[in-house]
Amino acid sequence: MVNQYSRTELLIGAEGMELLKGSSVMVFGVGGVGSHCIEALARSGIGKLILIDNDTVSLTNINRQSIAYHSTVGQFKTLVMKERIRDIDPSINVKTYETFVLPENLGRLLDQEEETGAGKIDYIVDAIDTVSAKLALAEEAQRRGIRLISSMGTGNKLHPELFEIDDLSKTSVCPLCRVMRRELKQRGIQHLKVLYSKEKPVDTGGRETGEEPGVRRSIPGSISFVPPTAGLLIAGEVIRELAGLDESSDRPGADKV
């Protein structure tokens, strides 16, 4: 019978579709990377999506985030994303947390979801900016045995074709990867699957933008086609693994956190 997933089923088979339908994916960050990743997961038939982000849509998000329109400015990103998913497939179970992730509350958040949710989280996507939260996610995922993929820096870049997915230990050039390698080594974590780029960041001259009233800080530049590409690549990795189609299982760190 023809349905919205008929074309997907031609590629991954009925068994693959059932595996995706029975999977639960937790996504931290509903921004340029996260929003496009979430949408691809939803359009592929993931059965449950858990979205975590405390931010609201701002005017400057419109250039790259799938949930950002003039009509959604000021709304919680998680809730806009939830409505978008509902329009894609009303049967997808969507849970949202309008929460800022900190090392102090991450464990409680995961405990809460495992206790009140379906009892399992099959995959975690890290699409957040805070290094401390990224490190905490890596620690918690390893401790709980949950697969994790972490997005490294996508700001100040113009060449999405240079993105790669590999083990953190194999990365180079990316400044965030360098920090993560050092900090995770101190925590006894040797492996982490990441999306990163060897592109040297564009020098924006340290210009400051006052996005928030009374707050001026240096922020990275971004463009419409870079973070979304990163999000789609991450979604592809997650979908292939959950559907049992991952051809990179022998890649260093592919089955490790």
From TrEMBL:
Residues 200-221 are annotated as: Disordered. GO terms for molecular function: tRNA threonylcarbamoyladenosine dehydratase; ubiquitin-like modifier activating enzyme activity. SUPFAM superfamilies: Activating enzymes of the ubiquitin-like proteins. Pfam families: ThiF. Residues 200-215 have a biased composition (Basic and acidic residues). One of its GO terms (biological process) is cyclic threonylcarbamoyladenosine biosynthetic process. Residues 5-248 form the THIF-type NAD/FAD binding fold domain. It comes from the Bacteria. This is tRNA threonylcarbamoyladenosine dehydratase. It comes from Candidatus Mediterraneibacter faecavium. The lineage of its organism: Bacteria, Bacillati, Bacillota, Clostridia, Lachnospirales.
